[in-house]
Amino acid sequence: MQKTFLMISFCLSCLIGFSQTQTAGVAVPDFGKFYRVDQPEFKTDKAQVFRVLFDMVDASTEKSQVHPFFNTAARFLNMHTDAGIPLSQLHVALVVHGGAFDTVLNDEAYMEKHGIKNPNTALIQQLKAADAQIILCGQTAAHRGITPEKRNPDVMVALSAMTAILQLQNQDYKMIF
């Protein structure tokens, strides 16, 4: 019994000793918390320009929470600015299509569809303030009836997701999965 207690105490102390606290960033202050990694062996090239593309096709599983890809984009911006890379060297684009369409509805349209305000609104606004591009597939918008009046004003529309993704890749954006 005493041996079991000592083993459990040891395991818990190890977990507590190795746990870290997430840090809020400055690029997207209310979202995208991250863990600081002190002295990584794989060094971050602070002179490099990062062009990142997120393909948002899947619906959010929880309609009352921010879409994980929006939060991942915020985390990307926050952890890299914290690591010393200027925001001017970080270029983020999110292409929204398919089942993720409702993430870019304005609050009124989201309320009509889900009975609550869009939890992504503030995050989209902060991503836009950090110069991220949020692009809605025009084919998805037409198919789902997302008119400019129903769309978040910080979201732009492309001819299609395929078009936006291809153009961004031709501009050296790299897809993050």
Walk me through this protein's architecture.
- This protein has 177 residues and is an alpha/beta fold.
- It has a single domain (2-176), classed as 3-Layer(aba) Sandwich (Hypothetical Protein Ychn, Chain: A), CATH 3.40.1260.
- It has six helices and five strands.
- Strand 3, helix 5 (138-144) and strand 4 form a beta-alpha-beta unit.
- The protein is globular and about 50 Å long.
- Mean pLDDT is 92; it is low at 4-18.
Q: For the report, how would you describe the main beta sheet? A: 5 strands, parallel
Computed structural class: alpha/beta
Give helix % range.
25-40%
Number of helices: 6
Mean pLDDT across the residues is 92
Strand adjacency order, main sheet: 4-3-2-1-5
Number of strand elements = 5
List the secondary-structure elements in sequence, H or E.
Answer: HEHEHHEHEHE
Distance between the termini: 47 Å
The CATH class turns out to be Alpha Beta
The CATH architecture designation is 3-Layer(aba) Sandwich
**CATH topology description:** Hypothetical Protein Ychn, Chain: A
For the record, the count of structural domains works out to: 1
Strand content is 5-15%
Report the C-alpha radius of gyration, rounded: 20 Å
Q: What is the molecular shape?
A: globular
Quick recap of the structure?
The protein has 177 residues and is α/β, with parallel strands linked by helices.
